[in-house]
Design goal:
Layout (H helix, E strand, L loop, with lengths): L1 H35 L1 H10 L2
Length: about 50
């Protein structure tokens, strides 16, 4: 368990960088996916009137 704690303590400063890059590069993909549902949302909203 001590080896794990030491490894995690050494890794901890890099976690912020990993999170930043993952969110920065995944955001455009998620935006495209969300934009694909816009027409479905409009169709459902028009049908419920």
């Amino acid at each position: 368990m001590n080896d794990y704690q030491k490894a995690y303590a050494d890794y901890r400063p890099y976690v912020k960088h990993q999170t930043f890059y993952r969110e920065a590069f995944m955001a455009p993909t998620l935006s495209k996916v969300a934009a694909g549902f816009e027409m479905i949302d409009k169709a459902l909203a028009a049908g419920s009137r």
